[in-house]
Specification:
Largest sheet: 6 strands, parallel
Shape: globular
Number of strands: 17
Strand order of the largest sheet: 2-1-3-4-6-5
CATH architecture of the largest domain: 3-Layer(aba) Sandwich
Helix content: 25-40%
Radius of gyration: 25 Å
Structural class: alpha/beta
Length: 573
């Protein structure tokens, strides 16, 4: 018999989560959330991860959910603790990640009274969550068990997008009265779940196969347009059917690293550099563009894809991903399923001059970029991104920070298979990067790497704090240019106040910081030593920093030289 109502609620919710396949949960310590902490700790079906900082805890859960593609609960006490979950909730909303947010709260009689650690937590995250539920104070009444199990099932279903909307975060606000530990007279009603360990209400993740009409429309587009482009952004779709679609269509494939689809003979890795060339774009204007997932890394490409270019978006949830207000059609269906169906319907287009022109330009541009990057053994940010993606063993995961690292990866990563690339590009913040990478590494069954800038690392130092049970094996390659390097490419760079206000040099010694955190540190002296340094760091185990010291001015100059050689290469000079 469970000791009291608060313990009963937590025990039932945790049991039901386990029945739905939840395997991991993250908590931050607190008193009001004690029933959930103790219930999670007592249930050996769910591995419990404790983080000191609530913001870090939420991003660890986010990373875990991204890597595992399973719902992950994150639990905190009342007050500002819940507010610190907000950045991760926003990212989960924009990136369609199944994050289950459980916030403990004071009971109603303590709200609005000035009671300690009490804030208004009702609908705290606004429209960023798929569903909010004020669970209510648990009471020893008949029907409580069914209510708690049913709402937990719905929470899982809403987070998975199984009930019609896109996947995303869900917020359960749990008002708990004392006692908060397993003591008391006992709960007088049965709390058992379904026989055989089944969930109360089954909510399998939604699969949205394309309709026959969707397949017909897409097949007609592919068959009818030789001058087409397949553009793939951040998506959970399986990459191989998309690669096969590009090959069947005879279309160039512009695939961001997060797509996993930058592979095969049609992949145009240097698309960002090529589309910047006015003359080439004017003579290689597409008749149709099929977009899969969330595209947004290349500003140059987005600027080209205006309303004059016929565009069709394929998105599993039918999300409205149209920043240029240019789409002519949205197909709400699983992209990989649709791609496979279209490949079966169309006649493969061979020896396309259109495709040959794009792939030839790509070969010229990449050769020119590689020659310039390899001419100097001084470490640089573009070469580090290129080489790290190339050296990652098959089956690796690479978590990349927003801002410059993910853009460098997009610009210089060569086509390859068997590398999963993840980044917080839903809301595109640099906050929570270390914690996200830790969550990804902990969930991943294989080598885990990360590529960070110095500010994204420093912004989330709490993510590298020691944790019970230790941190997972993770090699973090850090480009340290002593400030915000991306601003050097933006208009503020011309302002007299640029250095103190935008560049924000910090002067932090990363070796000293690493020693204080108990993580490893290795400086990279020569660009050509990156592979050996990363291998050595990985062999050491735990979290290891590989520091790549760069200069912001030198990085701007290198990018300018790269633009010059690319311009010549596109023109065939």
């Amino acid at each position: 018999m469970t000791a009291n109502p608060s313990t009963a609620l937590a025990t039932v919710v945790v049991d039901e989560l386990a029945r739905h396949g939840v395997t991991d949960a993250v908590i931050a310590p607190g008193s009001r959330s004690a029933p959930f902490a103790l219930a999670l700790h007592a249930d050996d079906r769910i591995r419990l991860h404790v983080r000191i900082d609530e913001r870090s805890a939420a991003f660890v859960a986010l990373g875990w959910a991204k890597a595992s593609r399973r719902p992950v609960p994150v639990v905190c006490t009342s007050g500002t603790a819940a507010a610190n979950f907000y950045p991760a909730v926003l990212e989960a909303d924009a990136a369609h990640v199944a994050l289950l947010v459980l916030t403990a709260d004071r009971p109603p009689e303590l709200r609005g009274t000035g009671a300690n650690q009490t804030v208004d937590q009702l609908k705290l995250y606004g429209t960023a969550v798929r569903w909010f539920c004020e669970v209510g104070v648990p009471e020893p009444v008949a029907g409580a068990n069914a209510y708690w199990r049913s709402l937990t099932s719905r929470a899982v279903g809403e987070a998975l997008g199984a009930l019609g909307g896109p996947p995303g975060p869900v917020h359960l606000n749990c008002a708990l009265r004392e006692p908060l530990v397993p003591e008391g007279a006992g709960f007088p009603f049965d709390l058992d779940g379904r026989p055989g360990g089944l969930p109360w209400t089954a909510v399998p993740a939604a699969v949205r196969p394309p309709s026959p009409a969707d397949v017909e429309v897409a097949a007609e587009l592919v068959q009818g347009a030789e001058r087409g482009l397949l553009v793939v952004g951040d998506t959970t779709a399986a990459p191989e059917p998309l690669v096969a679609l590009a090959e069947a269509a005879g279309w160039p494939l512009f695939a961001e690293p997060l797509s996993g689809a930058r592979a095969g003979p049609n992949a145009v890795a240097a698309y960002d550099a090529i589309v910047r060339d006015e003359a080439f774009w004017a003579s290689h204007y597409p008749d149709v563009v099929v977009v899969v997932g969330r595209v947004g890394l290349s500003k140059a490409l987005l600027s080209r894809l205006d309303a004059d270019v016929p565009q069709v978006l394929v998105d599993a949830a039918g999300a409205w991903r149209d920043p240029r207000r240019a789409l002519s059609r949205v197909i709400a269906a699983d992209p990989d399923t649709l791609a496979a169906a279209v490949v079966d319907e169309v006649v493969e287009r061979r020896d396309s001059p259109w495709l040959a022109a794009w792939t030839a330009a790509d070969r010229r541009v990449r050769a020119a970029q590689d020659a310039l990057l390899d001419a100097d053994d001084t470490p640089s940010e573009p070469r580090t991104a290129r080489d790290l993606a190339a050296l990652a063993p098959p089956g690796s995961v690479l978590t990349v920070a927003s801002s410059m690292p993910v853009r460098d990866l997009d610009a210089f990563m060569a086509p390859r298979r068997h590398l999963r690339v993840l980044a917080n590009r839903g809301a595109s913040g640099i906050d929570g990067f270390c914690s996200t990478a830790i969550g990804v590494a902990a969930a991943w069954d294989g080598p885990a790497l990360a590529l960070a800038g110095d500010l994204s690392l420093l912004h989330d130092v709490a993510g590298l704090l020691p944790a019970a049970g230790g941190l997972p094996d993770l090699v973090v390659v850090v480009a340290n240019n002593d400030g915000g390097g991306i601003f050097s490419f933006l208009p503020p760079a011309r302002h007299p106040a640029f250095e103190p206000v935008f560049a924000t040099p910090h002067g932090v010694d990363l070796a000293t910081l690493a020693a204080g955190l108990g993580v490893g540190h290795r400086p990279l002296e020569r660009a050509g030593d990156l592979a050996a340094t990363v291998v050595a760091a990985g062999a050491a185990g735990g979290v290891q920093l590989v520091e790549v010291r760069t200069q912001r001015d030198a990085n701007v100059a290198l990018h300018q030289r790269l633009r010059e050689v690319v311009s010549a290469a596109v023109a065939g000079r």
